[in-house]
Amino acid sequence: MRVILFDPFSGASGDMILGALIDLGLDANRLRAELGRLPLDPFDLDIASVNRHGLAGTRCRVVVHEEREPRNWAAIRDLLATSSLPPAVRAQALAIFARLAEAEAAVHGTTVDDVHFHEVGGTDAVVDITGTCLGLSLLGVERVYSEPPSLGSGWVQAAHGPLPVPAPAVADLLARASAPVATASPVQANVPGELLTPTGAAILTVLAEFERPGFAPSAIGYGFGEKEMPWPNALRAWLGEIDATEDAVADEVLLETNIDDMNPQFTELLVERLFAAGALDAWLTPVVMKKGRLGVVVSVLCPAERQRDLVDLLVEQTTTLGVRSRPVERVKAVRRFETATTRWGEVRLKLRGWRGRVIDAAPEYDDCLELARSADVPIREVWNEAHRMGEVFVGQRWSPDRTPSLRVVPPPPPIPIDDR
After folding, report:
1. What pairing do the DSSP bridges indicate for beta strands 208-209 and 143-146?
2. Cα(205)–Cα(133) distance, rounded to whole angstroms?
3. DSSP 3-state assignment of 312?
4. Which of 150, 13, 35 is nearest to 84 (CA)?
5. Cα–Cα distance between 143 and 240 in angstroms, integer?
6. What is the rounded distance in angstroms from the CA atom of residue 247 to the CA atom of residue 226?
7. What is the Cα–Cα distance from 370 to 372, expressed in whole angstroms?
8. pLDDT averaged per 10 residues, the chain (length 420)
9. Which domains does the chain have, with CATH numbers?
């Protein structure tokens, strides 16, 4: 399993997270192309290599050419919902902004629908949050972790005037996630300033688990912020693999609820939000309930630490009056990603291992779909070529180490037939 560990020793912001992902190897051109799916005001990514205090990294800044008024939650929700982003990316971005809306509503004593985003409603914040979700997907990251973030001290200037650090929205986000915070180092304690921004806090508290996993790091990236500090003002990110064992048994929770009085179309968004909130799997089973009413059983498999958030989501997003839960054990096959370079472009392969051998190599559907659209070819041709290339892995001894990406060899020209 490919994982990322953020180390916010100098806090985190949206542009610092993007910079760290690019420094880890995220293709900036592909990120720009994917962000083009958003119906946004004209913008660009200003990316530069920097070296501060003897530490090299990447700075990524969103440059907006024609900024409009900050959007409210409803406008951002419509913007993301109508975009052509991959469903998982769209769901993650919506979950982050939903958490921001809840925090802002609590701080200002209003409702979520009446929230107006000021600092986080502009194009740059939308790009930061959506770009982070896209970047993690493009890097093949399956799980996100974070060390406790540094907050800063003093005061910050906001749309409503000066506010204490951490800003009230940041404090609410941390409290909702029960997230730990770092103790200020002696050097940071003497330099006032905001280190953890609302955008950075929302991304970390929604996507990350606040613990350090046992993993084998393969790359380290640094994303620099705009501020100059007496220390490297950067976010460190570790990219690596968890060497899971196929017979490993995980303690997990199965949540279920029966629903027979809700519009079935509403379940599409429900399932999206379940995955965005940390569900390992979610599915719907049609049933016949009392008085012959047709209903559906919503089932959610989740880590025990995500149970409370997912129960809250089921109660708030459906018409249910209660949720059943029971602990389950699941035997997991190991997985890792490789890249096949077809004649149309790159396709990720999901390798599945069992009993020490690779038993399957499945092309990622979203990658095949994108290449088929851009090249105007049947998707089966892209999928079939990537699948043929992935077959070289099947039967090999399993190893968590990544293997060099495959390159397609163009077929030889046809041999002319002499029909004389």
Report:
1. parallel
2. 13
3. helix
4. 35
5. 10
6. 46
7. 6
8. 92 96 94 89 90 94 77 82 86 89 78 61 84 94 93 77 84 92 83 91 94 87 93 95 58 92 92 90 94 93 90 94 90 84 92 84 93 95 94 78 49 49
9. 2-241 (no CATH), 249-331 (3.30.70.1380), 334-407 (3.10.20.300)
